[in-house]
Write a structure and sequence with these properties.
By secondary structure, the chain is mainly beta. The chain has 3 domains: 1-44, no CATH class; 227-363, Methylamine Dehydrogenase, Chain H (7 Propeller); 371-679, YVTN repeat-like/Quinoprotein amine dehydrogenase (Methylamine Dehydrogenase, Chain H, 7 Propeller). The strands form 16 sheets. The protein has a 5-stranded mixed beta sheet with strand order 14-18-17-16-15, with no helix packed on it. Strands 19-23-22-21-20 form a 5-stranded mixed beta sheet, with no helix packed on it. A 5-stranded mixed beta sheet has the order 44-45-46-47-51, with no helix packed on it. It is elongated and about 85 Å long.
Length: 682
Amino acid sequence: MPTPVNCVQAVDCGYFDAGCGVAVFCGRCAAPQECGVSTPNRCADPRVCTPEGWCWEHPLPQGGSFVSGFAFGPREVYLGTDTGSLLFWNGERTRGTTFPTQAGVGVRAVFGVSSTELYVGTEGGRIFRFDGTTWSRELISTGVANAILSIHRGPSGVIVAAGSGGVLLERNPTTQVWTPISISPPTTPAFRRVFVAEPFIFAISDLGQVYRGAIGSNQVLAVGPLPPISLITERNAAAFSADAGFVVVAGGAVAPASGRAVMLDLRQPTGWVTVRDEPGQPFEAVEIQEPRVFLSGNRGNVAVVTLAADGGVSSEGPLLPSDAPLFRSVIPTATDQFILGGNNGVMGFVERDGGAWSVTDNAFAQNRFDTNNDGCATAGLVAGSPVAFVTSAGNRIGSRGARWSWQGGGSVGGSFEWGRCHVTAQDQAWAVGNDRALVNPVSRVARRSGQNWTEVDTPQFSQQWAAVSGFPGGSTFFLANSNVVLVNVDGGTTPGAFRRVVLDGGPVNDLFALSPAAVSAVHGAMNRGNHFSAEPQFTAWNWSAAAQPPAPPNDAFAIHGVGQGNAFFILTVGSAGLVIERNQSLMGVQSRVPGVSDLTDVWVSSSRNAYIATTVDAGTLVGRTSPTVIFRSPDGGVRLEPVPVSQRIRGLFGVDDLDGTTRVWVTGSSGAVLRRDLPDGG
């Protein structure tokens, strides 16, 4: 990026048109803000959304790890994430694209020819093409269950792709169908890179073996020697020169542990030579922008190698401090400029402007969460006034004002974590948590009054509490193991404010889910055996008050209810796609959502639209599950929307009737918080 200069008044950041075709760079915004989000050349919090409408609230600008990318130039960069999103960086800010989100299915290869011809390869053997307006999924002649790791196009239009499991593909320009390229001798290791240097196609395998074949021959043959195991043991990435004159493989050596990059000259294949050796962690990515070779990894393992015309090699680095995050991709944007893609949304900008290399990144000016277990909200002065309860990273509690951040209070250290939460009023919320080590059956309860969190100290919290819920106005119920509910009827924090209520007449089983129906004074409780109980009087609970639906029981993971006049509606979700609906008669109607695994959380709006967190089993073509929210309308209509979080969605909550808007949040691993705004009624 160019060196920032003094800019005109009312221009804070970014590129400014100074006339005569000259773009003046006015600097970057202080992280996590970006430039031009809502007003040109002004800083503001970024807003990165999926085409489906899920927008990141934490971390900012987004939390997917960058695992691939392609740049037409410094201000036209495409970034692929491990959560299934394709993002665009214009030199000033990050934004989403119209690429159809494949949640949990990493975007592993991006290659562009022009703004009207862009190719994306993902896990599960999927290739997509963008024509400048719409995305279409490409046809592959034989089913490919492997990740597409590399795509490249030659000057005449020949396009090839490579992936795991020994997959090599060529796109027929007439039929536009991808067909396999045979490998001799046959091999199944992943192909890290494929490259078209007409009249040849080159590929390099996971073992470091280079293959070459004539275009149109439908075959590649092994050429040159393997890199000796004594030279490089981890082979994580590979790159070809512009004319495929040489190849660089990056990874690491074991003895001694180091990041290492080795090169093979394909014109004079005398053997592999080391071009960079850095003690510490292995390199994760390599790209070539002649005469530069850019290498990235973690713990400072980011380096630049310059290849001289006479065959000499000079090397610079490490370019980052030793506690740097893991950078999994490197994207050249110019000869002396590249972008680093890191874990959980960290992005680095590396450049040289007449002197030494400089590194800046979007390391956030905000606390980063490790995992969000749950969230809860109530309508208030700040729309939704959500509160998140966060585990790990010191087991602290966080909340959202203008931005998600840590709040005071909550236990720190040890194996304790916060698990569930509930907001009873605009200025009051509760959280429950447990000792993960299970050394002692000790739980903690924390109360938020105004902006302050305090732990409630009472010997009654000597069990592993699993849930917390209550009615608006202060009454709160804490749900315990066995058949015990701890009741707080006035919001107090003294030991006398709580009393135990034992559930009689039913099986002794772990209670796991609790929810109110706000208008009529009815709470519903579910245990892991899928038995249901209701308690209308705050005095006694009785399993015999409700029927269990016929069917093999499954664990009930979450329950939520809403009042409708003098009636109420309760929805329970659980393992194996279990859904149980109950109305004021307390009788259950059981169904299952096909094609999903566990339903982990649920929130029901006042219009009885249900929002259910789950993971969709995408099968062998993907090889992993996809975090998804199910939208379920009162008439039984169902639609599934992918959400770009790593692994699973841990919590789901919302508020409605906000100026005609229903607002839904999801929380997940890596500190993810995303929000979806919908018209009331879904």
